[in-house]
Amino acid sequence: ITHSHIDHLGMVPWLASNHNTTLHATNLTAAISEMMWYDCHKVSSIEGYPLPWDKRDIDLALSAWKTHAFNESWHQDDWKLELHKAGHIPGAAMLHVETPNKKVLFSGDFDTRDSQLTVGAKPVKSDVLFVEGTYGGRDHPPKEEENERFIERVIEVVDRGGTALVPAFANGRTQDVVMLLHKYLPELDVHVDGMGKRVARLQMDHPETLRDPSALESAWRWCRRVSSKSDRKKALDADVIVSTSGMMDGGPSIWYLNRLRHDRKNAILLTGYQARNTGGRRLLEEGRVPIFGKLASIELDVDQYSFSTHAGHQEIVQFAEECQAEDVVIYHSDPNMARPPLAEALESKGHRVHLPKNGESEVI
Fold first, then answer.
1. CB within 8 A of 181, min separation 6: which ones?
2. Which CATH number goes with the domain that contains 260?
3. How far is the C-alpha of 231 from the C-alpha of 100, rounded, in Å?
4. Cα–Cα–Cα angle for 142, 146, 149, nearest 5°?
5. Quick check: helix, strand or coil at residue 285?
């Protein structure tokens, strides 16, 4: 299991209970998994969509973990396996598999650029590279420029007497944003709400996964953590509120939006991708968000920032080159928009490129 985001972890209880699967990951990924599964179960109950597993399967999955430190190998028959830092979020890992005749690297979600939280992924010499192509054909704006744009916007909102509501993903983005605010705007009153508080505590318990453990600890002591209804009411007077959910699909961010939306001095600063049919996407496209079952018009300023921790197009191409991979398999990507330009760029560098399709086998 490469990392602890729910789109990579969500079916694991089913695997463990139906196939008696042994689960391999870093210590932090395993530690975060329990809260992610219980949250997933809670959300599915509230929203009424079925899950193929229940709470009993969570217990089975938790007992199935075998955890590994980075760069410490173990053996599976005649395969040698090793986890390497992926740079996506703390604890995220790439899997290197050394077989008798090929060396294979699975990138998982990865980023070669350093973030506030983590150091970027480093290439590992491999014959075959399975690489995520999420941002194939697209490059990110320079990180420093995007950070500066975000900080300047926060200052504008605060200077006019408003509150900046920053919806953020619990696992990675919340901590990144708090560290950014602490670094550049330590004079501000910043409140943090949602599941990101629990994730941060676990990250601090695993300092080996962090770029600068003391920077996260300092930022976390500095911000105000919301832990009660009265705290939540006090946060309405803050300069900045950082809260889940990052896509504005429930969570405390909706509660704050409902109370902040009537004052045009306030603003919403989206810090991540907004998927189709989410509150955040509807806000961007329609200026409306479902709030407690009713569609509400939002007349606040809305800005979006690219704080992605996936490798961009150029980073992927350079990474494959530095891994010296003869064969590259592109996955985790849009087959129509992302894969074709990425495949073309990789082929121009001399790699044999494979574009897998579900249900079809390929021999390398």
1. 151, 154, 188, 190, 219, 223, 240, 242
2. 3.40.50.10890
3. 58
4. 140
5. helix
155-186 tens-digit pLDDT: 999 999 999 999 999 999 999 999 999 999 99
Tell me the per-residue pLDDT of 202-227, one tens digit each, with 9 for 90 and over. Answer: 999 999 999 999 999 999 999 999 99
**Strand bridging mode 74-76 / 93-98:** unpaired
Three-state SS letters, 142-153: CHHHHHHHHHHH
- 326 and 345 housed in the same domain: yes
CA 203 to chain centre: 14
CA distance 348 to 335: 19
85 contacts: CB under 8 Å, gap ≥ 6: 70, 92, 93, 94, 118, 119, 121, 122, 209
Q: Please state the pTM of the whole predicted model.
A: 0.96
Going 142 to 146 to 151 to 153, the CA torsion angle's sign is: positive
Report how far residue 4's alpha carbon sits from residue 109's, in angstroms, rounded to the nearest whole number: 11
- Rounded to 10°, the helix 12-19/55-62 angle is 80
DSSP string, 2-71: ----HHHHTTHHHHHHHH---EEE-HHHHHHHHHHHHHHHHHHHHHT---S--HHHHHHHHTTEEE--TT
Q: Kindly state whether residues 258 and 325 are assigned to the same domain.
A: no
Would residue 361 count as lying in a domain? no
Taking CA atoms, 261 is separated from 151, 203, 207, 286, 362, in Å, by 21, 33, 38, 15, 53
Burial call 151-167: b when 16+ CB within 10 Å, e when fewer: eebbeebbeeebbbbbb
